[in-house]
Specification:
This protein has 18 helices and eight strands. By secondary structure, it is of the alpha/beta class. The radius of gyration is 24 Å and the shape is elongated.
Length: 388
Amino acid sequence: MPFATIQNARMFYRLQGNPGRPVLILSHSIGTDHAMWDPQVADLLPYFQVLRYDTRGQGASDAPPGEYSIETLGRDILGLADSLKISHFAFCGLSLGGAVGQFVAAHAPERVTHLVLANTSPQFGPRGNWETRIAAVLKDGMAAIVDMAMQRFFSPNTLANEHPQAASIRSVLLGTDPVGYAGCCAALRDADHKDLLRRIETPTLVIVGDRDVSTPWSGHGEVLVREIPGAKVLHLATAHLSNIERPRSFTAALLEFLRPQPDMGGMDPLQAGFEVRRAVLGDAHVDKAIAATTEFTRAFQELITRYAWGTIWTRPELDWRTRRLLVLAVTAALGRWEEFALHVRAGLANELELCDLKEVLLQTAVYAGVPVANTGFHIATEQINKDA
């Protein structure tokens, strides 16, 4: 298992993805661990090398006795980045992780390219609440606060519907070392970044949960947005763990903020379109299409390359597997069988498996009619046999 010893404490971490891609560090809430970010990782890996870690006192990292500070936790992650030879990174932190992110961005601005502060605050008072929580866990263990914490983490509907991710969070919370939890409580109790925020020059996105009773907009998110120069804000209809209650919306916001679209960066999407078109359909098909282009058809070829491939297919909010399935369903429903066959071939050569193809055609049978699906299965079978 990957561990690094930082400031005399052993830290557990997971570094995933292809070396050479921009690094994104994900920092979790108090009472959770790095697995809190599981809903985001698969969608982030095509674009980033993702570093997750268990904060000091949480998860599989050491839980030394005593009170921690946000500075200590911030220097932990800077030390971990140093040990992994990561010089620059984007940082996304939620709750406690967001407090750590504020410290890191203010004290190491040359290293942080983008900052996402989710469900967090520059100050987490009142102090008495934290003192009560510290005393409870040190006396009676994590069971003393688990119900209270879960009601803050999640909306009533999420808990009532027995969301599996919520059950996992509860299990992690109960398994947290009370000593480490109390140490992190002390860090939040003492956090006061109100004079720090104007020093943050990193492009910043603040994510706020409109049902979050721990760090609501008023007095928390609004302060971050007001005091951090140029900060943007996104409101989600969630409680405290917004990345779990609205995982797709949270991930889409990350990708839009961290990875602007090519046209937003002044790049011509035509070139991006050619690259995506080749990746999705294969070089042979694209080379054939280019060779067949005439002066009469050139404008149309550029139109579909620029807008279909360079503008829509480059959007990161849907992965290519999902887009392939949508194309297959739509082309089958509309009887665009030449396009359907093309995307069957290309899909099976890349992200799609036979089970994907079967399910999309069964779905199409229900919503577009059995004859459509029958033709789709026939054409798909022909393509499968050609590749056999």
